[in-house]
């Protein structure tokens, strides 16, 4: 007899689930029904903290004026049992403090902006008459109100509120009072329960700070070191499991549940058996790509999983989108997520890479607690980690250019484990605007591809046929986001970590050299095929181990960096020397650039040939020399290349870039943190970074491996609506291919100490290694969707600036754009009032992420695309 895959609802099977689950129980508490470690639906309301003064309370003003705003409150009936919370964030437990793996406090225990936290936990009751009584205990910061099925059952440190109860402040903390407050054990009569799904709702209010809690730091920053609103622990118990179904562990059998496209799935996740499986809902527009997903889980390994997508049929009219336009992919567990790992009872991995083929078997993943992270991991005595097999299944709809606007419907059929298939409805809203082809994107995108990482990942000879086969996958994906720069490392051991140069030097009997440009030409062929004509081609001829690269000393510089640079002093650039007879490649040092009598005869023929090749392609204006960083080449080096490559400018990647360097233009560079303001709204003028005449972009340094998907989705629009043209220096496929001590793996970037740029090294990787080359990731898909929205914004802003729309349409269009500014700021922010500030591009922005996921962001996307469609229609009718 075949079993059937069930949705997360399956209330008819609650008794079966209860009998199948195995719980570790505390001896003195009976049966645990809900716990901190359960999955909760959560809504954050964020506001500036308030401080108690003699005549009342007043908000603490931040130097960042836009931060002195508030996010919306939930609906008044949010605690009701039938309230629709599908768009709220969903995660287990709480967000404790001290969880940032590189020095900052990101947990809500340390954040002063949460003003109201509303949480909804669900459990099933099969026979209310058999449940005589429940017990509730909790600890928290601020004040708490608890509701069962919409009726208040307990309250702590919060007076009975006025009409504006959701904005009510909790009791002030007394002098010397601990931040943790407790709700004494509350007895709940079984008569309050109902058959089916029951909802325990928790409402947490902030307390005002005392003046001593608010400190001042440099540059006018405000410092508050603790959060006065948040849950610490909660537990609901019953004397036994008779008549009631606990919700603290993975249900039995194969289960499907919904997941927000922006939400990070973890390999310890499971669906709430009290929530219905809903359609996958997408909002998109013509010529764009838009993703959704559903997650499959089981307590046992899952074999033979696969998803099959039907065509999408337009409702109420003609037209369809073929199934061939929809990719079905399978997320892989790889890497950690800032702000997520401490929510679980055991080490978890996020799902990121999107494999193009389903796994033969999804295993049950178990890991033991690891190192220092587990000192801060959530603890919940009596509740065990819920290990299982988890597989998110992604769909990405590539909406055709000629698709009719309107609502479409189809289905994703999931097959797994020999069970009967489950058809998940798919709904797609297509707006009447056409996204430009990626090659035409105005937003500047510079994601660096690493040929040598690819060769090492797949263990193939550099520049071989197999190598180029794998490289093509990376370049094809970069073409999907309109990547604008191609990097040609003409020297070895650069900051990119390349052991070989893309041009091999071949020594002749008379002591001269000829050059093997075949890899360079073949690489550019792939760039042309998949990305089109690059805006810039970086001829990578300089790095910090050459003339001008200072031996940096002091804090933050390791001894091996200093030693490696000093060891290279007096030597010139390193290049790859090819022995044509044996095929062997070795690295040799050429004379220093600052000795032109020796270097010019070597480099002049090569640079002339490369520039001719670019000219033959029609790319001669794209050539730039690089790469300057905070270290810059000497006057002699600049003069050397100015003679060899007259008229070719330079580029820089650092904390800024000069417009001229020793008289030669530097036309492309970035800001790490300067110029990061962006416009719109009441406190700033509109800045239109996309239209600035020079090529200044943003370099998002720091550990982007662990940043949440919002950082990737928002980076494009945040920059082009600010003061930058876009962004640079994200890594594409800088995978951890180097094996280090104790089994740790490392990326190639900065593997040679002499070319370490310290905190300017490439530390990100937006693609994942697949079977035959790079595959997309959840972060890459969010980056792509964010770029499409940035292009819609640019389209509208161009029309407004050029006077192509006016009157009421112009007002409404601008209002749509202005609404997005504060939401982007909030969604990417970490909300720290710490001594080192709260810069969105340097911190993972965990709190902003959890708020943004539940902020109905898809509705804002629809408004943006619809506004672009209306503007386009107005232009057509002019």
What does this structure look like?
19% of the residues lie in helices and 28% in strands. The N and C termini lie far apart (66 Å). Residues 1-28, 97-106 and 674-683 have low confidence and may be disordered. Strand 13 and strand 14 form a beta hairpin. It folds into three domains: 23-245, Galactose-binding domain-like (Jelly Rolls), CATH 2.60.120.260; 255-434, Immunoglobulin-like (Sandwich); 442-795, TIM Barrel, CATH 3.20.20. It has 878 residues and is of the alpha+beta class. Helix 8 runs parallel beside helix 9 (778-801). The strands form twelve sheets. Strands 3, 6, 7, 9, 10, 12 and 16 form a seven-stranded antiparallel beta sheet that branches. Strands 31, 34, 37, 38, 39, 40 and 41 form a seven-stranded mixed beta sheet that branches. The protein has a six-stranded mixed beta sheet with strand order 1-17-19-27-24-25, with helices on one face. The longest helix is centred in the last third of the chain and has 24 residues, at 778-801.
